[in-house]
Queue: 4 jobs
Job 1
Amino acid sequence: MDVLVVGDANPDLVLRGDVRPRFGQVEQLLTGADLVLGGSAAITAAGCARLGLSTTLLTALGNDMFGAITRRHLEDRGVQVLLARPETDVPTGLSVILAPDDDDRAILTLPGTIPTLRPEDVTDEHLADARHLHVASLYLQPGLAGGLADVFARARAAGVSTSLDTNWDPAERWASITDILAHTDVFLPNANELRAVTGEQDLDIAAAKLVATGTTVVMKNGAAGARAWSADGEWSAPGRTVEVVDTTGAGDSFNAGFLAAKLAGLPVAEAIGWAAAAGSLSARAAGGTAAQATREDLDPTASRPFSER
């Protein structure tokens, strides 16, 4: 496989309109609702597959309706699903996303099977079959987080490159992150995550601290696109102008764009352009996967024979 993605997979119930709850049995009328594929790892995996990468998702699902829906969504998008263990009676996780008619949103999550992944679930056999290992939603999976440094060290020893998107730590402790980043080739935070992980408010200083340890930092920069820092320099790339319907999963599609570019051999300066474009384009439809970028969206030469590129 090109990419082994490890992490969360679950349905997202996206509710739009008048979504700020008013208790007292008040009934509110919505403008839209969609049940879509959710989980940072799952959306990233779907984005990688859509961009032409052979992609496997290692995850945990329950033996329930939400587990079946999640697996079907993934397989429909060309992602091979690898369960860490047989489906159990633990319910599949679920996120309810409240999206009012502005740029804000709130997320309610039932963890379910999401925290059940463990470091030992990523076996040497899995790593032997992969070119790249990506881990997402680290702090929704504390059991995995505690041993991820060893997993990444094993991956590197096997010649497998590594990337990490922690997402936000609800406990704001950022446990084990220093040890993990010591074995991480690419760290994919947003600005707030980069500040929190390093304890630095200035983004350039924060990135420099991580680059000094050997990590390339690729930061999601909202509507402005992307910024990146490595030992070779620093770069920025703009996003694309689109009519925004839903920003759910845009950061995960960003990850997929970057990974597709890097695995195609592009330098960081070009890869962040793919990432910024992929993140922007994913916001054109409800949910994280309905409008994910294709290779042709990001690479104008993709549809032409190699002799003409």
Job 2
Amino acid sequence: MLHRSENRKQIAYYVLPSISAMVVSFTYNVVDGMFVGQGVGENALAAVNLAVPFTEIMTALASMLTVGGATVMAIRKGRGEHEGANNAFMTSAMLVLIAGIVLTLIGVLFPAQIADTFGATAVLMQETTDYIRWYSLFSIFFTLSILGCAFVRNDGSSGLAFWGMVSGAIANIFLDWLFVFPFQWGIKGAAIASGLGQIIACIVLSTHFIKRHGILRIKKIRMDRALFKKIFTRGLPEFVIQMSQPITIFCYNHVILSYLGESGLAAFSACTYMLLIVFGIFLGVSQGIQPLIGNSFGEKQAEDVKYFFRTALGINFVASLVLYGAYFLIGPAALSLFIKNTALLPVSFAALKGYGLSLIPASINIIYITYFLSTKNTSRAMVVSCSRGVVWNSICIFAIPTLFGVESIWFPMIAAELLTLCIAIIVKPGVTRQTDYKIIAK
């Protein structure tokens, strides 16, 4: 068991760069929103929000295959099984590459059908289609950057993982400005800027393997059916976590278009961009703590597992309270970065205050899922993931405004997350004991 001072150093080393990398990663979408809202207009902002479910499905697939492999890698690394850890990495890389190719073909060949499926109206159809088509051209690099960031961090180069994402974000900001304003490429320019930023991130992350840092190497894959199953099953809860956002936005888009029209959707879009950064912080804590819990579990250190879990809960909960409070101070000013039409700001701020409340219980739910995954409680992780990502959010978004009217439209997610938190507390097993580790004999 590590001393508490050593544990704190480990948390700082893994979690802080992970938070930074995730915030930078989500900045891609946020910057797109700012430039689209200011440089193209509110309809374009609404169009990007309609495309978000597709772009985040891409992220969810890549995250599933990455986290599944990274979880296996962390446990094997903790046991000292370096060859097995490397094979988990290479298998994940192959699966992510295949997913990127498939997503590229779907997005480039069928953008109009995707836009129609996600509810694009006649007014928003063309811009939604354009964004999906051009964004999809870079699907391989979007997915590989997610893979690279996670495995480079888990292989001991958390600083490089951070700088890989930072370099891509800086490039994206500059290119967004260049393509949207001087070049006047509109919504297409924002999508291309994001894609080129991801290429730069991939190049920076690749230096970890070129310089042969850590234990991971680019080598021939040893095909293992059991490993495929482990990657999918342990990554599936992460997929559901990531899918909660596109499912929520998809449902909300339909409800908002019905109640408030295209202008209401633009107002909601600005709100979701603001919350992306907060969501990125929560996921950063989650992904940073995952290798620490996984390694400690692999090493059969029960007290360290509990310490990392409780610390992650505390970090996320405090962060959620502080950031939600900050929205009351900077909300209107920050939202104006996305919306030129000041008449929409009160609607967007109301959405931010109501919808944003859900981030407080969500911050805890995300850590519960990570804990379950990292300690081989995959079935419990799936229960909680499906609860918050598929079941309660979908039910509440449609049911609450129907029952209580349009005034309640921003509160379904707080109800969904609280219901999920109750389930997470109920299904969590008792205090981890040393005897619990008999399950890792396989």
Job 3
Amino acid sequence: MISIQNYLYNNNTNITVNDFGRGSKIFKTQNRKVAQIAKVAGISKKRAALLIRLIAYVKPKTILELGTSLGLSTAALSIGNPNASIITVEGCKNTAKKAEELFSEFNLTNIKLINNQFKDALPKLVNNTNFDFIYFDGNHQKEATLNYFKQCLVTATNNSVFIFDDINWSKEMQEAWEEIKNNPKVTITIDTYFWGIVFFRTQQAKQHFTIRV
């Protein structure tokens, strides 16, 4: 994973980024270096390692990621379970192109990238597949996050796991996380501060945990 991160950290190509969600708190223009995007907005080494371990433990066969960006977190998902079928969705054409270059460079062949906005891609995806694992990492607005969550609920099984990134990114995201926790289909949640992890195990009583990792 370190070699994959360094591949992006050393890429000083400029690209124009279209933000379809809340946008960046750091970048003030749409013209950005790939290396800067990877360092500022990409998954950190610590979180990537944790995501790899989590995927290796859960062993999901079907994974959906909303928000590919440059593909760092997607790569972690692939490394965690090379046998999983991964669909990742990215709205920005230029970042999607860089992500596909990354997947090709490191032979991550179990990833299918869809270059489309979430609102357009999701209806078709959730009607065709049950996902064992969904990683929500885009938009960062309350209404949109809750909308995507509710759409994806139809794909959830007893063993499915949903992860919401940046649940403390804003007051809006904190409110969205509280609503997700209170959804009647949700049984177990884990708040790691940066991630909100959701389980749907009907055999367990509803419980909410807070840990710092």
Job 4
Amino acid sequence: MTAAPTSGFSAFALEPFPELQPGDDLASTIADVLTRTGTELQDRDVVVVASKVVSIAEKRYVGLASVTPNAEALELSAKTGKPAEIVQLILDSSDSYFLATEKGPIIARHTLGYQLTSAGIDRAGTEGAWLLPLDPDASARALRDALISYTGSDVAVVIADSDGRADRRGATVISIGAAGVAPLRTTEHGAKKQEETFTDLIAAAAGIILGQRGRGAPVAVLRGISYPRSEEGVASMLHHRP
């Protein structure tokens, strides 16, 4: 989907942001932070939310004591040094995987169709883990609709997840869910056309603010981006759709 070019944009975190508890209303919490900080959303803002807080709101917690590793998980645990229970959750959440090096990380194709380090499993201390939302695009749509209702501003939502790359160290940020913004964008220059994973670019831009472990700012707002509207969601651009 072709969009007008973006020549510049601004981005900011919604903070301080309270620590979310399982089952909390994420949209209401965001609205409360907006009110408390005197911030107003504007039409066509893109609200980028870390997947972990979506998982917390949706109660996607698994206690490791309830997980029984099988022989494959035990073998992978010995190779990678990951707890066998976490490895079992990775196996349960994916339909294929490979090791980026002999000792990992584990790059898995999630049953939702995403290729993610550790199948997107996020450790929760020593006793538990957070799974991805059941349907990230549906989560994005629900959050977008609620934010429009709370604020009156016609915004888009992107759910972002930190992820590693098989060819290099470190983590980046990608999109796993979206609502109100097309996941793909086509840019043109002369006779050349290029299809871009646009919501990934948005997530990566927000990732500079969201950061990784311990940042404590799970929501960012990007303002001034030109984008085509769409309800297709991130799943529409996957090679392997669930």
